[in-house]
Amino acid sequence: MKSADSVVRLFVCSAQKDEVGKEVARALKIELKKRGLKKLFTGGEKHKVRVQTCNCLDLCKQCKKGPGAALVVHPEGTTYGNVKPKDAAEIVQEHLGEGRVVERLRID
Ligand code: FES
């Protein structure tokens, strides 16, 4: 049986009044597929990548009150704020593909 640790999850808040969180999640899924990064090989282990919408992450200043959505990369815990759909390619390529945090969107 596989352990829960073999999955990297991107939890995207979709509690805003508009649909930005859902649009960000959709864009992330598209980029993961396009770049072949739905499965990662890092740290000597294989990881599946899942994108999930969720309720408020208590980061509303960078989400509900901003132009974009907040998201958390689990289990590592990096948080991004004010993420717009056009940022999805950068997060997928840099963070997941190259293992570098996208500093301009980081809020933790
Ligand atoms: S509404 Fe998105 S973090 Fe609170």
Task: Fill in the keyword field for this structure.
108 residues; alpha+beta; Glutaredoxin; 5 strands; 24% helix; globular; binds FE2/S2 (inorganic) cluster; Thioredoxin-like_sf; (2Fe-2S) ferredoxin domain-containing protein
In short:
By secondary structure, the chain is of the alpha+beta class. The chain has helices at about 20-35, 90-100; strands spanning about 5-15, 40, 45-55, 70-75, 80-85.
Outline the structure in words.
The protein has two helices and five strands, in the order E-H-E-E-E-E-H. It is an alpha+beta fold and 108 residues long. Strands 2-3-1-4-5 form a five-stranded mixed sheet, covered by helices on one side. A hairpin with a 2-residue loop joins strand 2 (39-42) and strand 3 (45-54). Helix 1 packs across helix 2. The model has no long low-confidence stretch (mean pLDDT 92). FE2/S2 (inorganic) cluster binds next to loops.
How do the helices and strands line up, and which of them pair or pack?
Blueprint: E1 7-13, H1 20-34, E2 39-42, E3 45-54, E4 69-74, E5 79-83, H2 88-98
Helix pairs in contact: 1-2
Q: CATH superfamily membership, which one?
A: Glutaredoxin
Q: Tell me the β content.
A: 25-35%
How many separate structural domains?
Answer: 1
**Would you identify the regions where 5 or more consecutive residues have pLDDT less than 50?**
none
Largest sheet: 5 strands, mixed
CATH topology: Glutaredoxin
Structural shape: globular
Bound molecules: FE2/S2 (inorganic) cluster
Summarize the helix and strand pattern as letters: EHEEEEH
Q: What distance separates the N and C termini?
A: 33 Å
CATH top level is Alpha Beta
Q: What count of helical segments does DSSP give?
A: 2
Helix content: 10-25%
The helix/strand class is alpha+beta
Q: From the alpha-carbon coordinates, what is the Rg to the nearest angstrom? A: 13 Å
Count of extended strands: 5
| CATH-scheme architecture | 3-Layer(aba) Sandwich
User: Which assembly state applies to the chains in this document?
Assistant: single chain
Report the average pLDDT across residues. Answer: 92
Strands in their spatial order, largest beta sheet: 2-3-1-4-5
Protein name: (2Fe-2S) ferredoxin domain-containing protein
